[in-house]
Amino acid sequence: MPPLLVLIVAVLATTYAGPIVRFATAPAVAIAFWRLALVLPITGALAWGEGRGERFDPARRGLAVHPNVPLPSPLSPLLMVLSGLLLALHFWSWIASLRFTTVASSVVLVSLKPVFAWGIAALWLREHPGRAERWGIVVAVLGASLIGLGDARLSLGALSGDALALCGALTGAGYYVIGRRVRQTVGIWRYATVVYAVAAAALALFALAGTTPLVGFARRDWAVFGAMAAGPMLVGHTGMNYALRHFRATTVNVAALGEPVGASVIAWLVPSIHEVPPLTVVIGGVLVLLGIALSLRGDGRGERFAAVADGPAARRNVPLPSPLSPGRAKRSDGNES
């Protein structure tokens, strides 16, 4: 499936996360834990299938490597653990913020991730968005800000919720930038399984330390857990992690700004929530979509490169031209390219 289509479907799958979590009575930690835990059997099985393609390569110091994937960095396992910890904090802070503020305000503040991702990626990965992408970020964030301003009167005084949402933005940006780095050499299902497992374990420990229950919930809560796992988690987050192999972290984060647009529409249409978006939210939504289009066009180069880490379509094992790794890239036969 084309990476751009995967990214679009992933963003659409995340749009109902904000509205649907409002129906749960379970603690934020429990919601975040179960949305991760319920997808692990699926990602784990797919990661095992991904790993069956490994071969033993004596030339690579006896390591078993996937024939389609360059040798991972020794830091990859550590970075995946860190990514999982950031994801756990991102989920907890975002879901907790929904208890103190409205869907639109929470999702919009969390959606400031592109700004943080821009800075982190520039400092660490030396990735700088082009002119079109920069304009896309500005336009999309402006649109998100208009959505937040239009919703401000509904969430007046919800400073604690705003602070939690901003925490979610910072940790979410770090999670995606790390994914951009690691996904150059690690397959999508293996990456997703490790990161989701670490995040679930961290949330379980957090729940244990705070004596927060992880079981004994009503049927409606379990329905919310399943819906969050199937759509926003398995399709949404995994799809965006897949896209990180092909697009910059800032671009993926800008695309994710489509979430508050869809979430606001859903929150308006669902009778039990019925948060009617004012004109500023509508205008902001149009600007967000325009910003997404500009960013994707500016980073459209990502589709021209082989999906080295993602399966049979990448048999050529062509590395991604990127400043993510120092020095010149190596071909699979060991010659410099």
In brief:
The protein is mainly alpha-helical and 337 residues long.
Describe this structure in words.
The protein is mainly α and 337 residues long. The protein has one domain (3-53, 76-314). The protein contains 14 helices and two strands; from the N terminus they run ααααββαααααααααα. Strands 1-2 form a two-stranded antiparallel ribbon. Helix 3 (28-37) runs antiparallel to helix 10, helix 6 (103-110) packs antiparallel against helix 8 and helix 13 (258-269) runs antiparallel to helix 14 (279-298). The longest helix has 25 residues, at 219-243.
Uncertain ranges: 54-69, 302-309, 311-323, 325-337
Roughly how much helix do the residues carry, as a percent range? 55-70%
Number of helices: 14
Q: Give the helices and strands as they follow along the chain.
A: HHHHEEHHHHHHHHHH
- N→C terminal distance: 27 Å
Main beta-sheet annotation: 2 strands, antiparallel
Described by the principal axes of the CA atoms, the overall outline is globular
Assign the structural class, choosing from mainly alpha, mainly beta, alpha/beta, alpha+beta, or little secondary structure: mainly alpha
Q: How much strand content do the residues show? A: under 5%
Mean pLDDT: 78
Radius of gyration: 20 Å
Any idea how many domains? Answer: 1
Query: Taking strands numbered 1, 2, ... along the chain, how are they ordered across the largest sheet?
Result: 1-2
The count of strands amounts to 2
